[in-house]
Amino acid sequence: MQNLDDFLCKEIKERKRIFVPAGKGKTSFVDTRDLAEISALSLINLEENKNKIHVITDNKALDFYEVAKIMTDVLGMKVEYTNPSVKAFKEFMTKIGEDKGFINVVVGVHFPTKLGLAKGIKNDFEKITGRKPSNIRKYIENYKENWV
């Protein structure tokens, strides 16, 4: 979730668009606050969590079209997902002066999403904490001043 107000923030503020080459693929957006909570609980209950892997996801996978719609609803301004090709993404990011290594990382992070490999949902967060993970709408509501 934090990527929305980290490297995507400028595009959202200036051009009212989400600009990443993720296609129509869905992904489970995760709030780093949830990850921090799981990390802390894992350390507190170290013996219980020893050699365990917890997969933290939201309860629902979304594509960037859906995220743009939620942002539009919450922010009161039109935000769209433009679904650029990898080539168009790289050309634009290079033109605005982004580091080539960073550009390749962004492409690499979104490639599994584009292929449909990032849509898996697990309920480890709920099992460990007894509550649902943060959702993207609530996150956008919490940080809306970052994009308007």
Q: What is the terminal separation in angstroms?
A: 17 Å
What is the number of E strands? 2
Tally the helices: 8
Biggest sheet statistics: 2 strands, parallel
Q: What is the strand arrangement across the widest sheet? A: 1-2
- Give the overall form: globular
Instruction: From the 3D structure, determine the CATH topology.
Output: Rossmann fold
Low-confidence stretches are none
Radius of gyration: 17 Å
* CATH structural architecture: 3-Layer(aba) Sandwich
Oligomer: single chain
Give me the CATH superfamily: NAD(P)-binding Rossmann-like Domain
Order of helices and strands: HEHHHEHHHH
**Approximate strand percentage:** under 5%
SS-derived structural category: mainly alpha
For the record, the CATH class is Alpha Beta
- Average pLDDT level: 95
Question: Percent of residues in helical segments?
Answer: 40-55%
Number of structural domains: 1
Structure report:
Helices cover 50% and strands 3% of the residues. Strands 1-2 form a two-stranded parallel ribbon. The model has no long low-confidence stretch (mean pLDDT 95).
Explain briefly what this protein structure is.
With 148 residues, the protein is mostly helical. Helices cover 50% and strands 3% of the residues.
Spell out the blueprint of helices and strands.
Elements: H1 9-15, E1 17-18, H2 32-44, H3 46-49, H4 64-75, E2 80-81, H5 86-95, H6 100-114, H7 124-129, H8 136-142
Parallel strand pairs: 1-2
